[in-house]
Design brief:
By secondary structure, this protein is an all-alpha fold. The chain is built from four helices and no strands. The longest helix has 22 residues. It is flat and about 35 Å long. The protein starts with a helix and ends with a helix.
Length: 81
């Protein structure tokens, strides 16, 4: 498991579920947003999500993802943030 995979797993199981006691809808929203990001990065780099690491999520990539959400998916700036 890569460092990013372990961190995401801990975020969902420890942070959202235990510490924040987030609702299932909140957990699903985070899950869906992160899934979109991971698929975007895979399409951009060719690296499967299971092999991604933090270096793959640099500022340029995240900025490109936010632009993608606005330009191609039609999300408003407020929604995408």
């Amino acid at each position: 498991m890569t460092m990013i995979a372990a961190t995401l797993q801990a975020f969902f199981t420890d942070r959202l579920a235990r510490q924040r006691q987030a609702s299932p809808c909140t957990v699903a929203a985070y899950r869906d947003a992160l899934r979109l990001l991971l698929v975007f990065v895979q399409q951009r780099t060719g690296t499967p999500p299971a092999n991604l690491d933090w270096a793959d999520l640099d500022a340029e990539t995240v900025s490109a993802f936010l632009n993608y959400l606005e330009d191609e998916r039609g999300n408003s700036t407020r929604t995408r943030n």
